[in-house]
Each structure stands twice: as structure tokens, then as C-alpha cells.
Design brief:
Blueprint (H helix, E strand, L loop, with lengths): L1 H7 L6 H10 L1 H12 L6 H9 L11 H7 L2 H7 L18 E7 L9 E5 L3 H12 L4 E6 L11 H5 L4 H7 L3 E11 L2 E17 L4 E7 L9 H19 L2 H14 L4 H11 L4 H9 L3 H55 L8 H12 L8 H16 L5 H15 L12 H11 L4 H17 L5 E6 L6 H12 L3 E5 L6 H5 L12 H9 L5 E5 L12 H9 L7 E2 L6 E2 L5 E6 L7 H5 L2 E4 L5 H20 L6 E3 L1 H10 L7 H27 L2 H11 L8 H11 L17 H14 L4 E3 L4 H5 L17 E8 L2 E14 L5 E5 L4 H21 L5 H4 E6 L13 H13 L7 E3 L2 E2 L5 E2 L4 H10 L4 E5 L3 H5 L3 H4 L3 E5 L2 H8 L1
Parallel strand pairs: 1-3, 7-12, 7-13, 8-9, 9-12, 14-15, 16-20, 18-19, 20-23, 23-24
Antiparallel strand pairs: 1-6, 2-5, 3-4, 4-5, 5-6, 10-11, 16-17, 17-19, 21-22
Helix pairs in contact: 1-10, 1-11, 2-3, 4-11, 10-12, 10-14, 12-13, 12-14, 13-14, 15-17, 16-17, 18-19, 18-20, 25-26, 25-27, 27-29, 28-30, 32-34
This protein binds adenosine-5'-diphosphate.
Length: about 950
């Protein structure tokens, strides 16, 4: 029966179970195994004796060998002759009715099982040795009762002190006849045989008792209940054995050597291997009713199974935990290996810390001498910190980025400057026409640098209307000085952090613009162009203007401290060039530190030069057109400037020229395309007649004609025209190719509007002769200077109706200035014509066209007075006169700004005479002669002088 159950559970091994078995049955299992595997292995007989000595019921073992051995104890005794080491030839268990009683402390000995015990009593041990020598190796093994009121923990210790009667009284009545198989020192190995019951004590020391050999009660082998119970025991045992390989071995050996189990043996086996306590086991031992014994055993094995299940689940849980940890460990190891492989085999240096600091050190080494010591110290500290930080931490990234910036800056690296004045002059002239002030200033700067041996940083501010070349000259200056160029705009900038950088603790922190600049240019002496400094925003937190001051001020910027960088950097060698349209909005302290160079705008003559020598050339190259393919006449250019591009700058002029050249490019390409389509014979006919002609493209209407006439101004391949494939055709095509260079598109005043459309700019001058009440003033805007009219007219007249009405989007200053003008005009009229009640009785309307443009400023004061007086006196103002000047209530004329712009604007409007405040005489004298050409200027300091000039 058990054979089947052991074979089914061989596959299952549970380490945890083994451990427990060893603990629980330690006294039984390990020596048993030793015996099984060791000393007695050679003698299968021993096994047989071992497990089956007590076959008292004479039941039927199947193994013939076993049968032979097990048929009866007598036979066994007979067989044992062959193994003299164990039992003498004359051995008969039945003879043992008086035996030495051995106390067992932990468990009873079951028949067929093996047990080592320790005998501490020397007398007892000597008696046992003696009996073995006398070939009578049997004793009675009895379980020791626990002393009343003790927990049995010191039972073993007390046991050795028990002697004689005391010991006798403490023994359980039912025990086992035990064969002494060997004695090693004080260790005695017993094998259980049959059950015994003590009847009386024979002698005290050693304790010898008289015993009866007892047998199970007879039972019916075919009894169903018995069968069922025993099957249940077996099936439970099978479950238990599944998780206990140790007992499986036992069972295997047990069956191998004693053959089939009988019911009582099943019960004994189950009880012996169960973990039941000693009293329960003793109960099984004492039970002679087979059915009852089986039931008792069933209880024990069921309990055993329960324990084994719990044990299994505990083992499983622990195993899972261990395997989880193991997996994590394994994955970590794998990751490490992959990273290593990435580094060495793929050359990818992931976030390997050493590789990173190596990189930084590599960057650092060449410039180590030039780096200031305090910066070097910070870098070293950060490098050490980097090694200590966890690579995945955010702090690590912050440090890495910080180091990246620190090591990338050009500490003490300067580009070799150009101190050659002539060469610089040449470069500046190459890029820009005019702008003498700016160029002169730069040459001075170079000269100073040459004399000193080093150049210093400076702040230059270029102010002027858009498109006058402020930005582009900045670039050109950098080229002339051989400095790196960096440009950034501060228009609308309101965040101080843009200039000063964020503190490193913020996520996504960045250094300020200046540090970014140094990193990107790679030198510590670049030219930095700060665009639109007049449009600096107002910060909600911190003032960008103050930050700019800190950046620009030569007193401070030698130790400029960026919040992100946190170490001072030296900006004293940087040349700052700022651009602005107006100076008024530049913060005072900032303006104070700048050298302002005004670029007023260009007069027509200058624009002609710029257009001819710079813009046209540039555009032509940009459009891929050869100089010989186009001619823009002077008259066309003049018309373009006068009628289309009258503003101060040349950006619009540049756009118009680009427009012209784009159109020309398209025409040239179209002509080329037509040329391809021409038939060879057509070509023959045409090429001769048109080859040397200059074709005037007469606008879009005539383009078709022109297209036919101009044959091949394009990129066509001569061979591509070759349709017939004859050599003659190729010759023709070559001729055409030659003629290509002679074709020219001519842009003249007459066809200019074909290219740029109708003139968008009408003359500022609306009147040839200004009517009564209208006077021309001169204004200045951020776009440059312009002329404007001030008109007054009478609304109604009547006693006491005198009033002033203002329109034309005037600002507060201009409104006040109108009020002043009204008062002054009234006073003057009273002087000149005391009888005239005009102002007292007339409601006057004063308007400044164009009504859609907002205007402000005090400089129209004298113009308004003149206009009011002209109306009051009903006299038109002298022809071609324009004026500008602020007037006080006492009629004094105060200076105004933008003299050059206003002069240029006056010239544009064909004004012949200008009135300027006396205080502006110096400004005017400084103007270039070509600007002043053809203009008559009157400087005045009192309004009465203007009155004389105007009327
Ligand atoms: P701004 O910065 O003053 O608005 P830019 O520097 O952008 O003007 O100039 C606009 C264009 O006009 C540029 O292409 C520049 O080359 C051209 N330009 C301006 N002034 C001159 C000049 N004096 N000579 C040659 N080109 C000029």
C-alpha cells in the first residue's frame, strides 16, 4: 500500500519541511539515516530486523526474502545466526520475560523503529554491555512519566538520578522489547520489537522488571471500517509525505524491507512519524484494539498534515520574498553590466560620474592658469560634490548643469584685437555709407586702445529712427575690431532674471543673457549689441533698468555677479553698443553712463549713395543677378527715394529695391523659359537682330513682346534647345548663349511703377502757398523728422464768443502749448493792433493734420502763434517758410531737439527758409554741409523776430 503512496510523492521536495523534521525527530532520524546509509548498509538483514522484528501476528509479508525473515520472531532469531553481531544463535525473544528497564524521556519506541538513547548511569551501561556480551541483547524500553506539577523540561536531567523503586514507579506500564544493536560510548542504539507490559520489579539497580509480551487483539482483515480507516491514514500520510522527503525515504525503506503493511503496522508507522506528543504516542502504543489504534493514529497524522500545510505556506511565503529580493538584486546587477557595456563597447558614457567629471576636467585643463583662483575653488568643490551625489537625484543634475556652465565660460580668453586704424576704417566704409560720427568714434576707440596697449570696455548708444543702420553698424564695428559679436534685444524685457539669471535652486534655472553670451562667443571681450534699450520693460519684481545698469556700468561690471553663476565675472573688457529710437525713455542713470551717438536719418543724396553702393549691390547678389543684366537709372532711384521712401531710414528703400530686383529676376527667368520654347528657325531669324540690343521692359503690357525679343537670359542649357539634333542648331544655341550677357533690363523713372507700384508717399507739402491761418511747422518723431501744418480757422464771431477749439490728437503738452500760443497771440495782437477785437469775439478752431497721428511736444509753440496771428490779421504767411520752437508766455523761444531731422524734413518738403531757436545754432552748425545745402536759416530768441519774418 505504502509503496504506491511513496512513489507518487517523490517529485516533491521541501527543504523547510526537512528542517522541521530534523528538529522534531532529531533523536530518531539522523542516527537512523546514518544506520541506513552507513555502517550497516552492507547487511540488508539489519534493515529487515530493524523494521519488522515484531511480527507477532504472523501476518503475510510479500517479499519472499522478507517473508523468510519475518515469518516469525523465532525464525528471525534463527536467521540472525548469520549476523552474529546482532543476535546470538540461541536468541528467543519469548525467553525475555525479565528485562533491564530502559527509561525513554521523549517518545515511546515503536516496533520496527530505531532509536538511539544515552545511558548516563554507568552501572546500567555496564549491565547492557554485559548482556550484549552474553548474546542476550534485549532490554525493555519504557516511556518515562512526567513528574506531577512539572512541565517535563528537565525530565532528561532528572531521569539519570532516578533509581530503583522511584524509577519503576515513573515508568509507563506498556513499553517495547528493544534490541540493543550497538553501544558506542554512552550511546545505545535500540530497535523496537514487540510490545511489553511490566508485571513486577525484579531488582533495583539496574532496574530489572518482569514483563508480559502482549499482542494486538485479533481483528478481521476484511472489516470495511478497519479498511477505510487504514486507507484514510495512508492517504493522509501520502499528503504528509509529499512535503517531507525524509519520511518518504523512511517509508520507502520500510516497505522495501518489510513488505506490505498490516493494519497495526500502518497505525504504528503513522504514529511514529507523526509529530504527536509523547502521551499521544504512548496511547497508540498501549492500544491493542487495532481499529482504535488506527483511529488514534489518524488523529495524529491529520494534525500532522495540518501542520505541514501551514509549514508549506510559510515556506512558500518566505521563498517568494527571497526570490523577489533576489530578482531585484539580479536586475540591478544586469543594469550595471549593461551600463558598463554601453560605456566600453558602444562608447556611450551614460551618467557615469567619473566620465562626467573627466569631461569637465578635460575642458578645464587648457585654461586652468587663466581661471581666477576663487572660481577654480568653486569648481573643485562642485566636482567633489558631484562624486558624492546620487546620479538620479535632482541635486546631481543641478550640480552637473552648474559645472557645465562654469567650465564652459571663456575665463580670461580674449580675441586678438585689431588696433590698425586704417584697416578698421576700411572695414567700416565697406559696410556703411556715411555715419561718420559713429565711425569716427570707433576709430578713436581703437587709437586709444593702441596707445594704451589694451582696449577697455565702453558703452556706446546709437540712437536714431529705424532703418538708419544702427544694428548693422554694430556688427560692422565688431568686424572692424576683430571682436566676437553677440546681439540681444531688451525691448519689452521685464524679468530681471533675463539679465541677472535665476538662482540655481529654481527648476529650469538659467544664467542671465550676459553669461549665455560669453558661453556662446567663447571670448571675454566680445562686442555686445543691446537692441531697443529705450523699450526696456518695467519689472513686476525687480527693476530691469537697475540690472542693466549693473551690467553696463564700467565701475561695477568688472565684478558682475550673475545669480546662477554665483561667482563674479569680469565684463570690463566687453564693448557694449546699445541702440535706441529715442533717448527720452532710456532710464537716466543708464543714459548718463552712455556715449550717445545720434543717427538722424539720411537725406536724399545720402540715400542715393547708400542705394547705389550698398543696397543695390547687396540685393543683386542676393537675387543671383549679374550687374550687366540690369540697369537702374539715377532718375529711377531718385524717384524711388523721393516718392516711395521718404522716411529717415533706408529699410523701406531696401525693401523697394529688393522688390525691383525680385521682379527683374522673374522676368529674366521667364525670358529664359520663352527662349527654350523658341523653334530653331525662329531663333535664327531673331538672334541676329536682337543680340546686341538693350531691351527696355515696358511694363506688364509689353512684357509679352519683350519676352519674345529677349531670347535667352536664363540658365538654359544650349543643348536643351537642340530639338532637331543638328550641329547647326547647337551653333545657334551657342550664339544665343553668348548674347545672354548683353541683355539688360532697364529700370527707369518711366517704368518704375511697373516694379514698385504707384507712389505711396505723397508730398508732405499740401499747399503751394499756405492760405491764411495755415503755417508749416517742423516735427520730430521716432521715425525721423517731418513737416506738418498747423491750421486755424474761425468758427463763429460775436460779442464775447472768443474761445479756442483744438483737434488733431494732441497730447497734453501740445494742448498746453496751444493755450500758451493763444494767450501770446492775443497779447501780440493787442500790441500790434489794439483796436482789433478778433480774439475776444471769435471762436477759433485749431487743427493739426493728419488727424489720425497722435502728436505731442512743445516745439510747435511758435508755429501755433503764427497761425493764430495769420488768421487774426487775415494775412498769409511768407512762402516756403517753416518754423519750430517752444515759446514761453513772455514770448521767449526755447531750444528744441532733432535739428538735423527737422532740417532734412524741411528739405524734403522744399522749404527754403527755416526758423530755429537761437539756442540750436550750435546744433545746426555741426550739420554736414550737404544737409544744409540750399536752406536759409533764421535763429531767433524772441517771437517778435518770427513775426517780422512771417508777415
Ligand atoms: P536699425 O537697426 O537702425 O533699425 P538696420 O541696422 O537694421 O537699422 O539697417 C537696415 C538696413 O539698412 C540694413 O540692411 C543696412 O545694411 C542698411 N543700411 C542702413 N544704413 C546704411 C548705411 N549708412 N550704409 C549702407 N547700408 C545701410
Amino acid at each position: 500500500m505504502l509503496k504506491a503512496l511513496t512513489s507518487t510523492c517523490c517529485s516533491h521536495t521541501s527543504f523547510g519541511a526537512n528542517i522541521r523534521r530534523h528538529v522534531t525527530f532529531g533523536d530518531l532520524t539522523s542516527p537512523l539515516l546514518r544506520v541506513l546509509q552507513g555502517q550497516n548498509r552492507k547487511s540488508p538483514y539489519v534493515f529487515r530486523r530493524f523494521f519488522c522484528s515484531d511480527s507477532t501476528d504472523g501476518s503475510e509479508p510479500v517479499d519472499p526474502e522478507v517473508k523468510r525473515v519475518e515469518s516469525s520472531d523465532d525464525e528471525a532469531a534463527a536467521d540472525s545466526k548469520s549476523s552474529s553481531a546482532i543476535v546470538s544463535t540461541a536468541f528467543r525473544p519469548e525467553d525475555y520475560l525479565t528485562v533491564i528497564a530502559l527509561p525513554l524521556p521523549h517518545r515511546p519506541l515503536f516496533p520496527g523503529f530505531y532509536m538511539p538513547i544515552y545511558v548516563k548511569d554507568p552501572k546500567l551501561l555496564a549491565a547492557l554491555v554485559e548482556s550484549r556480551k552474553r548474546q542476550a541483547p534485549y532490554a525493555g524500553a519504557f516511556l518515562l512519566k512526567e513528574e506531577e506539577g512539572t512541565d517535563g523540561s528537565d525530565l532528561e536531567k532528572n531521569m539519570y538520578e532516578l533509581k530503583g523503586k522511584d524509577l519503576f514507579n515513573r515508568l509507563h506500564e506498556v513499553g517495547t522489547l528493544a534490541q540493543i544493536t550497538s553501544i558506542q560510548g554512552d550511546q545505545v542504539f535500540l530497535i523496537g520489537h514487540r510490545r511489553l507490559r511490566i508485571t513486577e520489579m525484579v531488582s533495583e539497580d539496574p532496574l530489572t522488571v518482569k514483563v508480559d509480551h502482549i499482542k494486538e487483539k485479533p481483528y478481521d482483515k476484511d472489516d470495511d471500517i478497519l479498511k477505510a480507516t487504514s486507507f484514510e491514514v495512508i492517504s493522509t500520510l501520502r499528503d504528509v509525505l509529499k512535503s517531507s522527503p525524509l519520511w518518504r525515504d523512511h517509508a520507502q525503506t520500510y516497505t522495501q524491507h518489510i513488505g506490505d503493511f498490516t493494519y497495526p503496522r500502518v497505525a504504528d508507522f503513522g504514529a511514529a512519524i507523526s509529530g504527536g506528543n509523547k502521551l499521544q504516542c504512548q496511547q497508540v502504543l498501549e492500544e491493542l484494539d487495532v481499529h482504535k489504534r488506527l483511529q488514534l493514529t489518524l488523529e495524529l497524522v491529520k494534525k500532522e498534515m495540518e501542520i505541514s500545510r501551514i509549514q508549506e505556506s510559510i515556506a512558500k511565503a518566505i521563498e517568494e520574498k527571497i526570490s523577489g529580493e533576489q530578482r531585484r538584486y539580479l536586475l540591478n546587477e544586469q543594469l550595471k553590466a549593461i551600463k558598463k557595456a554601453c560605456k566600453f563597447e558602444l562608447g556611450l558614457e551614460t551618467d557615469d560620474k567619473t566620465a562626467l567629471s573627466d569631461k569637465f576636467r578635460e575642458r578645464l585643463d587648457p585654461k586652468k592658469e587663466k581661471i581666477p583662483p576663487h572660481v577654480l575653488q568653486v569648481i573643485e568643490e562642485e566636482l567633489t560634490k558631484l562624486q558624492l551625489l546620487e546620479a538620479s537625484s535632482s541635486e546631481f543634475n543641478v550640480t552637473r548643469n552648474y559645472l557645465d556652465w562654469l567650465t564652459a565660460l571663456p575665463w580670461g580668453e580674449y580675441s586678438d584685437e585689431n588696433f590698425n586704424v586704417n584697416q578698421a576704417h576700411k572695414i567700416l566704409d565697406e559696410d556703411h555709407y556715411g555715419l561718420t560720427d559713429v565711425k569716427e568714434r570707433i576709430l578713436e576707440f581703437i587709437a586709444v586702445g593702441k596707445l594704451r596697449g589694451t582696449s577697455q570696455g565702453k558703452i556706446i548708444c546709437l540712437s536714431g529712427p529705424p532703418g538708419v543702420g544702427k544694428t548693422s553698424i554694430g556688427r560692422s564695428i565688431a568686424r572692424a575690431l576683430n571682436r566676437k559679436f553677440y546681439r540681444f534685444s531688451v525691448g519689452g524685457l521685464s524679468d530681471v532674471a533675463e539679465i541677472k539669471g535665476h538662482r540655481r535652486t529654481y527648476i529650469g534655472a538659467m544664467p542671465g543673457k550676459m553669461v549665455q553670451c560669453l558661453k556662446s562667443v567663447g571670448t571675454a571681450n566680445p562686442l555686445v549689441l543691446i537692441d531697443e534699450i529705450d523699450k526696456l520693460g518695467r519689472g513686476h519684481a525687480g527693476d530691469p533698468a537697475s540690472a542693466m545698469l549693473e551690467l553696463l556700468d564700467p565701475e561695477q561690471n568688472a565684478n558682475f555677479l550673475d545669480h546662477y553663476l554665483d561667482v563674479p565675472i569680469d565684463l570690463s573688457k566687453v564693448l557694449f553698443v546699445c541702440t535706441a529710437n529715442v533717448l527720452e525713455t532710456i532710464p537716466g542713470p543708464l543714459l548718463d553712463r552712455m556715449e550717445v551717438i545720434s543717427i538722424a536719418g539720411y537725406i536724399t543724396d545720402e540715400k542715393m549713395h547708400i542705394a547705389r553702393d550698398y543696397l543695390e549691390k547687396m540685393t543683386r547678389e542676393a537675387c543671383g543677378i549679374k550687374p550687366e543684366q540690369v540697369e537702374v537709372t539715377d532718375s529711377a532711384l531718385l524717384a524711388l527715394i523721393e516718392n516711395y521712401c521718404r522716411e529717415a531710414g533706408v529699410r523701406n528703400l531696401q525693401k523697394q529695391i529688393e522688390k525691383i530686383y525680385r521682379k527683374i529676376a522673374l522676368q529674366l527667368v521667364r525670358q529664359g523659359a520663352v527662349g527654350v520654347q523658341l523653334q530653331p528657325d525662329e531663333l535664327k531669324a531673331k538672334s541676329g537682330s536682337v543680340a546686341n540690343e538693350t531691351v527696355i521692359v515696358e511694363g506688364s503690357d509689353n512684357t509679352a513682346e519683350a519676352e519674345i525679343v529677349v531670347d535667352s537670359a536664363s540658365d538654359q542649357n544650349p543643348n536643351s534647345t537642340d530639338q532637331s539634333g543638328t550641329s547647326e542648331d547647337t551653333l545657334e544655341a551657342d550664339k544665343i548663349h553668348e548674347s545672354e550677357t548683353l541683355e539688360k533690363v532697364l529700370v527707369d523713372k518711366s517704368n518704375l511703377d511697373d516694379f514698385v507700384g504707384k507712389p505711396v508717399f505723397h508730398a508732405e507739402r499740401i499747399y503751394d502757398q499756405t492760405p491764411v491761418g495755415v503755417v508749416m511747422g517742423l516735427a520730430w518723431t521716432s521715425m525721423g523728422g517731418s513737416t506738418l501744418y498747423i491750421e486755424t480757422s474761425q468758427v463763429e464771431q460775436g460779442e464775447g464768443k472768443g474761445a479756442l477749439n483744438l483737434t488733431g490728437q494732441l497730447g497734453d503738452v501740445m494742448k498746453e502749448s496751444a493755450q500758451i500760443a493763444y494767450t501770446v497771440a492775443r497779447a501780440i495782437l493787442l500790441e500790434k493792433d489794439p483796436e482789433n477785437p478778433f480774439f475776444a469775439n471769435t471762436k477759433i478752431h485749431l487743427h493739426v493734420p493728419a488727424g489720425a497721428t497722435p502728436k505731442d511736444g512743445p516745439s510747435a509753440g511758435c508755429t501755433m502763434i503764427t497761425s493764430l496771428l495769420s488768421l487774426a490779421l487775415n494775412k498769409p504767411v511768407a512762402k516756403d517758410l517753416a518754423m519750430t520752437g517752444e515759446v514761453t508766455l513772455t514770448r521767449r523761444i526755447l531750444p528744441i531737439g532733432g535739428v538735423k531731422e527737422k532740417t532734412i524734413a524741411a528739405r524734403r518738403s522744399d522749404v527754403k527758409r527755416i526758423v530755429f531757436p537761437e539756442a540750436n545754432r550750435r546744433d545746426y552748425d555741426e550739420l554736414a554741409p550737404n544737409v544744409k545745402e540750399g536752406i536759409e536759416v533764421h535763429f531767433v530768441d524772441d517771437y517778435s523776430q518770427i513775426f517780422e519774418l512771417a508777415f
